[in-house]
């Protein structure tokens, strides 16, 4: 028997066509969202699933039957029976000229760029067959802002898509950066042109995540990961899920998981940039027991037996209240619950605290 919810959902779906291929979209979806959802690539740089449509880059223009000009697919809502053409000669020509204008002042150093093979601009240019620009080249000369300890702002590679500005305003609600000046002199800047480290920026890295080029990049993150692992951030009890890019057993990239309802891809400064301890050479990998004033490696059984005997000795000699426990925010809520239960019920002590100030 069909599910009433599924039947209702099918009734709400909007049918339309792209290049004579029939597709369905949900009410309120844009042409670009519906196309990408169906696996049809339409070049785009300023669109982002977490942000309001912007229509700034003009790469996603399409032809829509009955509509004048070439509207942007990201700002055009799907309507029943709509007929869209995304691969006509006119559309391709407009997109190609737009891309040539974008790369006219963009550094041609893709092989040495930290975002090589992960760059949306590179992907769109390859799709449109643009490997050089017929326009007169005039690279920007603004020096990079390296004041932030976690990421670098390279103005020469900025295409003014404003994704970093919009995510700072719309997602984080901070507004640490905005568009400054106009025309060719426009650039992304904190208030009064200050370095990013002197602004109200909280170093969450959300802007870096959403930058489609190498204009914003994490320090030391040029290495491509060989695999991805999903895990939970170890820093607090919120439970943000992250996707770790791993190579040779080291974390080389950190992203928030867009599909996880708790954080929806967002991370704070600790979760995004504070995982260096995982591969630190100073990290302990085995228990250490002090013998003759020197720490020596031991097995977990030896270490746990020693701790248990010391707890027992203290409790018998001084009572359970001589024992105190300090929980860690890096442990799970379940582990912290068991720990406080152990201190209160096992040791018989009311002295239990939790430190989330990491």
Keywords:
three-stranded antiparallel β-sheet; 4 domains; 358 residues; Ubiquitin-like (UB roll); Alpha-Beta Plaits; alpha+beta
Structure description:
- This protein has 358 residues and is α+β, with helices and mostly antiparallel strands.
- The protein has four domains: 12-135, Roll (Ubiquitin-like (UB roll)), CATH 3.10.20; 140-222, Alpha-Beta Plaits, CATH 3.30.70.20; 225-279, Single Sheet (N-terminal domain of TfIIb); 319-358, no CATH class.
- 26% of the residues lie in helices and 18% in strands.
- It is built from nine helices and 15 strands.
- The protein has helices spanning 4-12, 31-37, 89-103, 120-128, 163-171, 206-210, 269-273, 300-318, 333-346; strands at residues 14-18, 21-25, 63-64, 83-85, 151-153, 177-180, 187-190, 216-218, 227-232, 241-247, 250-256, 288-291, 294-297, 325-328, 352-355.
- It has a four-stranded mixed beta sheet, covered by helices on one side. It has a three-stranded antiparallel beta sheet with strand order 9-10-11.
- A hairpin with a 2-residue loop joins strand 10 and strand 11.
- The protein is elongated and about 90 Å long.
Indicate the low-confidence ranges by residue numbers. none
**CATH domain class name of the largest domain:** Alpha Beta
- Number of folding domains? 4
Shape: elongated
Q: Determine Rg (CA atoms, Å).
A: 27 Å
The CATH architecture category of the largest domain equals Roll
Helical proportion?
25-40%
Mean pLDDT: 90
The assigned structural class equals alpha+beta
Distance between the termini: 53 Å
**And the CATH topology of the largest domain?**
Ubiquitin-like (UB roll)
- Strand line-up across the major sheet: 2-1-4-3
User: How can the largest sheet be summarized?
Assistant: 4 strands, mixed
Number of beta-strand segments: 15
Beta-sheet strand percentage? 15-25%
Order of helices and strands: HEEHEEHHEHEEHEEEEHEEHEHE
By DSSP (H or I, 4+ residues per run), the number of helices equals 9
